[in-house]
Amino acid sequence: MVRLSRSNTHRSVSQGDVFLIGVPDESKSLAKRKGTSRAPDIIRSAFNEAEFFERDGKTIPISPMRGSPDNKQIVDVGDINRDDLYKLIVDLVSLKKIPIIIGGDHSITTIALRAIGSVLGKIGLFYFDAHPDFVSSKRDYYGSVLVDSAKSIEYKKSMLIGTRAAELEELENAQRVGLEIVTPMDFVELGLLKLADKVVARAAGTKKYISIDLDCVDPAFAPGVSLPSVGGLSSIDLIYLVKRAIDFEIVGIDIVELSPDFDINHITANLAARIISECIGSIKVYR
């Protein structure tokens, strides 16, 4: 594992396996809390500080809890404009590279899904979010991702996880297309392992994309988000489920909606950094 740095943007696509892409854009957000456009560099800084030790002049990476980053080439391509994201994702996915996108508001997921869909057709989606983002009465914003990306999503192979702040129309839209919703109440009633088995069952037979809005986590564990909602997942619940999902053929990941001005002691940024480390440890690369 190497520290994240925009300095390795000179590498060609053929030289990397996992590509970190910052999209410092919140132009489609309606949140009263602002600042997600500053998140990519904050997450890089947290990664470089929290995921390494310094001892005797050496930089020592922390190993993921499961999996390994060994023999995986990580390229930080730096920050790009949202208008350039579509083509970059098309290029990476066409070459079987894995993008990890850090936002920015959740609308960037729409761009990623559309790009992947143009290459692979419909894919499954694991959408970790307090909110379904399935509004159909308004389009082209961070609350309409699942409508705006409809042509790229296989809803019956997808799952909303951590949902607890849904509008009625979103619940109706999810029911209509057969999209399964897992709420934090389900975690209490079923337990984490049974829910992980549901994720595994839902994953079978199709490629998957993982989208993580950090507000899926309870504000006690992730206070620095745009739209905090009490009663969410714990940090380890999220990490465990993401790693179980990555056991299947994952074609992309994003982490969005960090609002640094509202973070406390970098708790949320450090969580995002750990998610990146654990994802890299579990990702299977194809050369």
In short, what is this structure?
The protein is of the alpha/beta class and 287 residues long. The chain has helices at 39-50, 82-94, 108-120, 145-148, 168-177, 184-190, 192-203, 235-246, 267-282; strands at 18-23, 52-55, 58-61, 74-79, 98-103, 124-128, 159-161, 180-182, 208-213, 250-256.
Q: Can you give a write-up of this model?
A:
With 287 residues, this protein is an alpha/beta fold. The longest helix has 16 residues, at 267-282. The chain has a single domain, classed as Ureohydrolase domain (Arginase, Chain A, 3-Layer(aba) Sandwich), CATH 3.40.800.10. It has nine helices and ten strands. Helix 4 links the parallel strand 6 (124-128) and strand 7. Helix content is 34%, strand content 17%. It has helices at 39-50, 82-94, 108-120, 145-148, 168-177, 184-190, 192-203, 235-246, 267-282; strands at 18-23, 52-55, 58-61, 74-79, 98-103, 124-128, 159-161, 180-182, 208-213, 250-256. It is globular.
**What profile does the largest beta sheet have?**
8 strands, parallel
**Can you name the CATH architecture?**
3-Layer(aba) Sandwich
Strand percentage lies at 15-25%
- H/I helix tally: 9
| CATH domain fold name | Arginase, Chain A
Q: Unreliable runs, pLDDT <50, ≥5 residues?
A: none
For CATH, the homologous superfamily is named as Ureohydrolase domain
Q: How would you describe the shape?
A: globular
Element-level helix/strand string: EHEEEHEHEHEHEHHEHEH
β-strand number: 10
**What is the CATH class name?**
Alpha Beta
Overall structural class, as computed from helix and strand content, comes to alpha/beta
List the domain count as a whole number: 1
